[in-house]
Design brief:
The protein has a single domain (1-133), classed as Double Stranded RNA Binding Domain (2-Layer Sandwich). It is an alpha+beta fold and 133 residues long. It has a 3-stranded antiparallel β-sheet, with helices on one face. The longest helix has 21 residues, at 108-128. The chain has helices at residues 3-9, 23-27, 46-55, 76-95, 108-128; strands at 11-15, 31-37, 65-70. 47% of the residues lie in helices and 14% in strands. It contains 5 helices and 3 strands; from the N terminus they run H-E-H-E-H-E-H-H.
């Protein structure tokens, strides 16, 4: 993964933000929409592309385009930096591979502890019975 190439492939579009805000909302395009074409990216290898298609499939369109929105701030510049950080986080998280679980055996001490507890509970239950005369 080459971050510089990925950042150069991003497409930004400024859109009017929705919601409350009075005149500011009506005249300023502060919402930023980021789009990234995963299929035609030069910053990712073919293996990384295939892995990302599986990992972040729910965030991709049918054409394998990732679209992210940000309208958290009134400033377009801040929204652009927020959405870029969010994009890099999604890509890095999507490319991390989980650790392979190694199967382990129970230790001798844990086996002995388990058997000891079983014996004590067995004795407790035996002592609850009515005595045979």
């Amino acid at each position: 993964m080459n971050k510089d190439i990925l950042l150069s492939e991003l497409n930004y579009k400024a859109v009017r933000s929705s919601g409350a805000g009075g005149q500011n909302v009506n005249k300023v395009s502060s919402k930023v929409v980021l789009s990234f074409d995963l299929e035609n990216s030069q910053g990712l290898s073919d293996e990384e592309k295939a892995y990302l298609k599986e990992k972040i499939a729910s965030k991709l369109t049918q054409d394998f385009i990732l679209i992210l929105n940000c309208d958290e701030d009134r400033s377009q510049v801040k929204n652009k930096s927020i959405v870029t950080k969010r994009f890099l986080g999604i890509i890095e998280k999507g490319l991390t591979k989980p650790k392979i679980r190694k199967a382990t055996k129970a230790t001798k001490a844990s086996k002995e502890r388990r058997l000891k507890i079983k014996k004590t509970t067995s004795l407790i239950k035996q002592n609850r019975k009515k005595p045979d005369f």
